[in-house]
Write a structure and sequence with these properties.
The structure holds 2 protein chains of 2 kinds. By secondary structure, chain A is an alpha/beta fold. Chain A has 8 helices and 10 strands. Chain B has 2 domains: 169 residues, no CATH class; 158 residues, no CATH class. Classes of the chains: A alpha/beta, B alpha+beta.
């Protein structure tokens, strides 16, 4: 097995609602390996989105520590954490969150532009990534001109274009039909996964459970299953 | 990322045009009203500025402006002439009268009597005729705006006979001058004629116009005249400013124009603030995604600032062009705006106000973006 890409130790997270505090994550400890496609599954409210947000460095834990590729990310200063995300983490959002006024290639180039690369060079790199994802022909189209599957591929291209070592995906197939969903997952496995790279996917979608290397099931803010147990896979229902 | 910011903004055409329109409208309102205000109050000093031949205006101490006059005895002229440093001193009479036109209409006019021989006191430009025609018997010149007001076509005024205080006055020339604040028809004639045209009082001399011999500057000469004669002496520049100050102090014009300028600012804040807020709120998810990806708040601030500055300069340019066109066309085609121009300070003041509008509104609108948690994109 490869070295741990992500190490979560004793992580808890509380949210304040009115005068009361609600604990949504309870003392989570887990390691995620490079070279694995890891699913984080569970019912709505189980804490999986909170956990992936903490792993991705966009939500501070109330307690515990997170190391991503050996970097204790929450010990970094605020701007250091932002820079770390930009260099090391790729995001794929459920709603894609593409900028509607930029073309597919320009959208995909955003992480490179944000990192300071010249626009022309960044867009060229994005074109190459779109080519790998088989939508080079749509590179100059705007998001509104693309199907849901095509938009998802652009979002994947944006997540991968700067070659991050950790990819986090939030329900990447939720808005797609079964066939498109599997195609997206095949693409992710083919393009995103590598020996030095980890992919974590939050999903409800049991149609794609069979594509996971590892499944972490969550319930009430705790990891209740870690493995690839078919029984767990079939217990999960779409939301 | 500034390029991304500009593409985000210009791609949303409705809001982009809304922002540009809001700023352009505010710019138009502010700069046009400021220009009208400044040019209007400048008319308080125009009667003084039109007389190029006087360095110093001497008057009774009670006189405040070229229109608010307390006449002096004619002996004041000789007292001024006796002051060392005075090269020449000429009498000027300014008074109100009523004329009867050939159609029998009555019209209030300002009669200005200038030096009989040197004609000192006439405005610097003639629209029709030459200054020497004022030497003709019963000759008067009329200002071009007044000629158009009385006769429609200014050219028809020449040779027209008017009745002034039961006396005949013949229009022999048209003066090219900027109307005064009161915009009353102005007739110029020789001092001796003017004495007959306006109803008599014991003292008739309104001003003594002085030219220095070069041994003193105008301010020093004015001070010397005051010291030696007990009369009030003001340099041309000071006396023109007195006229402006009088209007500012005694009329409600600054308040009225100030209200309109304030409305321009309020309308700008409302339109720009609302549109910018809507634009940023519509893109809040995208900004959240950018923050999650690794765009710092500082870069987000720079993006919003770029967007704000872009619409500011486009809107400001359009608004200023419209205001300048409005003033330019007005000055060319309407006597009400004759001589109006856009002072160089007005675009700067307007730009400052517009930047304040955009700065204020974008600062408020940006708060929602800066406060957006990157984690919100996963919800």
């Amino acid at each position: 097995m490869s070295a741990a890409a992500v190490e979560v130790r004793g992580v808890s997270r509380d949210f304040t609602v009115g005068d009361s505090s609600i604990r949504v994550l309870h003392d989570i400890t887990v390691a995620i390996q490079s070279g694995e496609l890891t699913y984080l599954v569970g019912e709505s409210g189980s804490g999986k989105t909170t956990l992936i947000s903490i792993i991705a460095g966009i939500l501070y834990p109330s307690a515990g520590s997170v190391r991503v590729f050996d970097t204790p990310i929450y010990d970094l200063p605020d701007n250091g954490l932002v820079d770390f995300r930009l260099a090391n983490i790729g995001f794929i959002f459920q709603q894609y969150n593409l900028l509607p006024t930029l073309t597919a290639a320009e959208n995909a180039a955003i992480p490179l532009i944000a990192a300071g690369m010249a626009r022309g060079e960044a867009v060229d790199e994005a074109h190459a990534m779109l080519d790998r994802l088989n939508i080079a022909g749509q590179a100059d189209k705007f998001p509104r001109q693309l199907s849901g599957g095509q938009q998802q591929r652009v979002a994947i291209a944006r997540a991968l274009v700067h070659r991050p070592r950790l990819i986090v995906c939030d329900e990447p197939t939720a808005a797609l039909d079964a066939k498109s969903g599997r195609r997206v997952m095949d693409l992710l496995r083919e393009v995103a996964l590598a020996a030095d790279r980890a992919v974590i996917i939050v999903t409800h979608d049991n149609r794609i459970f069979d594509l996971a290397d590892r499944i972490l099931a969550m319930e009430d803010g705790r990891i209740t299953h870690d493995g690839r147990d078919p029984a767990v896979l079939h217990q999960q229902e779409p939301a | 990322m500034n390029w991304v910011a500009i593409r985000m903004l210009t791609g949303d055409r409705v809001k982009f045009y809304g922002l540009v329109f809001g700023i352009a409208f505010s710019t138009l309102l502010i700069s046009q009203q400021l220009t009208l205000f400044v040019n209007l109050i400048f008319r308080g000093g125009v009667a003084v500025e039109e007389v190029a031949t006087a360095d110093v205006w001497v008057m009774d101490p009670a006189t405040r402006t070229s229109d608010v006059i307390y006449p002096m005895p004619i002996t004041a002229l000789d007292r001024v002439r006796g002051v060392p440093g005075v090269d020449f001193a000429s009498p000027m009479l300014r008074s109100n009268a009523t004329i009867r036109t050939t159609e029998g209409d009555l019209e209030g006019v300002t009669v200005i009597g200038v030096d009989d021989s040197a004609l000192i006191g006439l405005p610097r430009r003639m629209a029709e005729g030459t200054p020497d025609r004022l030497m003709d018997p019963d000759a008067v010149f009329i200002d071009d705006t007044g000629a158009r007001k009385l006769f429609g076509d200014a050219g028809e005024a020449i040779g027209t006979q008017l009745e002034l205080n039961d006396r005949r006055a013949l229009v022999k020339g048209i003066v090219d001058s900027i109307p005064t604040f009161t915009a009353q028809v102005t007739l110029y004639t020789r001092y001796s004629n003017a004495l007959a045209y306006v109803p008599g009082t014991r003292n008739r001399l309104s001003f003594v116009l002085v030219r220095g011999d070069g041994s003193l500057d105008a301010e020093a000469l004015a001070a010397r005249i005051t010291a030696q004669t007990g009369l009030k002496a003001r340099t041309s520049k000071q006396f023109a400013q007195d006229g402006v100050d009088f209007i500012v102090e005694t009329t409600g014009i600054p308040i009225n124009f100030g209200i309109t300028v304030a409305l321009g600012v309020i309308v700008g804040v409302a339109i720009v603030g609302l549109t910018l807020s809507l634009f940023l709120r519509d893109n809040i998810k995208q900004f959240g995604a950018l923050k999650a990806i690794g765009v710092t708040n500082r870069k987000i601030t720079a993006m919003v600032t770029t967007q704000s500055l872009l619409v500011t300069f486009i809107g400001f340019g359009l608004g200023l062009a419209m205001a300048t066109l409005f003033i330019g066309l007005g000055a060319e085609n309407s006597d009400a705006f004759k001589g109006f121009y856009t002072l160089w300070e007005i675009p700067l003041i307007t730009l400052g106000l517009v930047l304040a509008i955009v700065g204020l509104t974008s600062r408020f609108a940006m708060r929602s973006v800066l406060n957006t948690e990157p984690a919100s994109v996963f919800r």
